[in-house]
Prior knowledge:
Elements: E1 2-8, H1 12-23, E2 27-34, H2 41-54, E3 62-64, H3 78-81, H4 103-113, E4 118-122, H5 127-135, H6 139-142, E5 145-149, H7 165-169, H8 171-180, E6 191-193, H9 195-198, E7 202-203, H10 205-215, H11 238-256, E8 263-264, H12 266-274, E9 280-289, E10 300-303, E11 314-320, H13 322-340
Parallel strand pairs: 1-2, 1-4, 2-3, 4-5, 5-6, 6-11
Antiparallel strand pairs: 7-8, 9-10, 9-11
Amino acid sequence: MHSVLMDVDTGIDDALALVYLLSRPDVRLQAITCTAGNVGARQVALNNLALLQLCGRQGIEVAIGAEVPLEIPLVTTEETHGPQGIGYAALPSPAQQISPRHAVDVWVEEVRAHPGEITGLITGPLTNFALAVRREPELPLLLKGLVIMGGSFYYQGNTTPTAEWNVSVDPHAAKEVFEAYRGLPEDKLPLVCALETTERIEMRPEHLRRLAEAAGAAGPELVLPEQPEGLRSTSSSPLVACLSDAIRFYMEFHRLYDQGYVAHMHDAFAACAAVERTPFAARLATVDIETGSPLLIGTTVADFRGLWGLPPNARIVSDNNPEDCFDELISSVGALARRLGGR
């Protein structure tokens, strides 16, 4: 059994990552903590509560944490993920309430209570985790492991020419987190899923068609480039319809920026990697974050050769298998949608 504490800024690809983890019978979601990023922190929490309800999994704690980055103003990205962060999808109003606990308290208290058992999965800015490490400096050693979606190493950024989104939202938090891991044992170092491998996880129309088939939904699920923008799904499966409407928005966004009618499912890959359900290779590196240069702020730099003379503080994914990852996502999420039934 994998026990996962998930920190998110939900977000279309965060949503697929969350649904995927909910679909796995061998995963226990310890809690979900929310940070501002793709949208504001409260909207992130509402998205997560609604997704839990849609998947029949109320009762998992959802806590709000940092609503602004450590040192710079918050920038959100509704143009990428939609006004509510989930594209065209219309989520139900959740019955469950947001937790009274702060996300930092959740991190510290849960990991202290279950030392060596919890894997952290962070698919948004690192603000909550940086604040948690300030509170409990032993957190990196108390966790079983940590998986981070973020950064780009000698690879084009997706926010500035050199910076990836999650890190660029709060580069100071990212810098603190990687500094906290410097010199720790290799098995405790964070696994970093950066753009050079997460952008290979390109969701295409045929993946949504296969998802509907795996769900046993009536009729094919057709999300196609020639269709009108904003077309809504009529799938008999509420979960397929929700994901389809979210991902159509994401595909339209990628096409607008000349990346094709695809959707980069960065966070879904990180989720599969966190629970060891997709193959990957990784390289040890010493990572640091640029925070002082207006031109390069948020740039993640990896020293793979020890030129700085500093110990490694990260394992950076260097290779992955998109086909295997999508097989895992489609079969597992499809099985969940089949269990939930139709409308």
